[in-house]
Amino acid sequence: MDRLPCVLTIAGSDSGGGAGIQADIKTISMLGGYAASVITALTAQNTKNVTGIHAPSSQFVAQQLLTVTEDIQIDAAKTGMLFSEPIIEAIAPLLRHKKYPLVVDPVCVATSGAKLLKEDAVDALIRLIFPCADILTPNIPEAEMFTGIKISDREDVFRAARILLDMGPHAVLIKGGHSQSWAITDWFVARDRDPIPFLQQRVQTISTHGTGCTLSAAIATGLAQGLEIEATIKKAQEYLNLGLRASFPIGEGGGPPNHLAPWLKVEAREKVLSDLNQFCRWLEASDGIAALLPKGRGNIAISLPYAKDLSEVASMSGGIVGTHGGDALSVGFPDFGVSERTGATLLAVQRLNPEVGCAVTLGLTKKMKQVLHLSDFESIWIKREGKPDYISLEHGRFEEWGTFTILKEHKAPGIVEAIADPGGYGYEPVLRLLAKDVGDLVEKMKKLFKILKTLD
C-alpha cells in the first residue's frame, strides 16, 4: 500500500471526544491522512463544560514533538490548544525550523466558554507561534482579541487580517461562523493578494463543539496531500459543513460535527440503489399504477444522506414511463446523477426539510388535481410566471429555483408532501410527490391510486 501523508496535531485532549486531539485524529483519518499527535494538555470535559485541565511539563511536550519528528516524516502539522507560555516557549524552537506547512488554530476558549489559553500565553503565542504559521485560522472573537478591532463588516475583517499578517503568518483565514448571516463567509487573506471569500450555507445546529479543530485539521490534511491552499480550504469547508448537517446529540449540551459523515455516505450508496430497484419492481408489478404517471417520462429520485448535488441522487437512467397497455415500466438501470428535474426538486426540498429522502414525478391531469385535493397531502404550486431571466429551463435549474422559492415561503416547509408544477409551453404539468423513504413513498402512491379509482 502507498504511504499515507502524515499530519501532526499539537493540541489538547478532549475527554468528551468532540474537539482537540480526538477531533483532529478523526478528521485526518477520515480525509485519508495518517495522524500523529503531541498532547499539550488533558481536559476533563463533556458537552456542557470543562471541569478541569491538567498539563504535562513543557519539557515533556517538547519531548513528544522531538521524538515524533525525529522518526516520522511529517507532511503537514497543525496546532490547537497550546495552553501556557512555558509550553509555547518549549515547542517554538522546534517549529521554527520545520520543513512542512503549519496550520495554527489559535485556540483560546472552548465552545462551552472555558478558557483554554492562559492570560500570560497570549503574547507568547503571537510572538513565537504566529511567525511559524503558513496559515492562521482565528474565528471572529479570536481575531478581535488579537488585533483589538471590533469586527462588524468585511472591511473590519480586512483590517484585522492585515494586522494579523504583520504578526508573522504567511496567510490568514478569518472564520465567519460567529457572524449573523444566512451564509458563513470565511475570508482568506495573504500578502500581496486580494482577499478571497469562501462561502458555505449556515447549518442550524447546536453541534458546533470542535468546529475550529475540525476545519484546521482538514486544512492541514489537504496541505499534506499536496493541494493548493484555496482547494484545501474549500474541501475542508465542505467536510465541516457535511459533518454539521449530519451531527447528532451526544449529551445535554452542544455536541460535535459528525466526523464520519463521508463514510456514512459511502455506506449508504448500495442501500439507495437497492431501494431504487425495489421501488421499480413494485411499480412494474402493480396493476394500473401507471395511471399516476405523466404522459411523458417521469422518474424517481432517492438521495444519499445529506446529498450535496445530483451526483449523490440516484434515479433510473432512462426514467419511468407508462406503456400503451397501461403498465408501468422502469427504463435503463439505477444510477446516480441521471435525473435532473426530479433530482433537483428533491435537493431543493432537502435544503429546508432534510427529512425528505426521495421524490417521484407523477402526472398532473385534471383528475389528478382532484385526487391531490382529496388526498389531503399538503401541496404547493411552483410559480412559473415569476421565473427570473437568469434561471435556465434546462438541467433542473428551474425546478430547483422554483421549488426552493415557493417552499421557503411556506409557514411550515416540513409538512409539505407534494410540489405541483403547472407546466408551460413544451412542459407537461407534473406532480412531484415527496416522502421520507421508499416505504413511505409507496404508501402515498397507493393512497393516490385508491382515490383515483373511486373517480373512474
From TrEMBL:
Know the name of this protein? hydroxymethylpyrimidine kinase
What is the protein's species of origin? Pseudodesulfovibrio piezophilus (strain DSM 21447 / JCM 15486 / C1TLV30)
GO molecular function term, any single one:
hydroxymethylpyrimidine kinase activity
Q: Which UniProt keywords are present, listed alphabetically?
A: ATP-binding, Kinase, Nucleotide-binding, Transferase
Ranges for domain Pyridoxamine kinase/Phosphomethylpyrimidine kinase: 14-257
PANTHER family on file: HYDROXYMETHYLPYRIMIDINE_PHOSPHOMETHYLPYRIMIDINE KINASE THI20-RELATED (PTHR20858:SF17), PHOSPHOMETHYLPYRIMIDINE KINASE (PTHR20858)
Q: Does the keyword Nucleotide-binding apply?
A: yes
- Membrane spanning segments where? none
A single Gene Ontology CC annotation of this entry is: cytosol
- Give GO terms for biological process: thiamine biosynthetic process; thiamine diphosphate biosynthetic process
UniProt domain Thiamine-phosphate synthase ThiN: residue ranges: 276-447
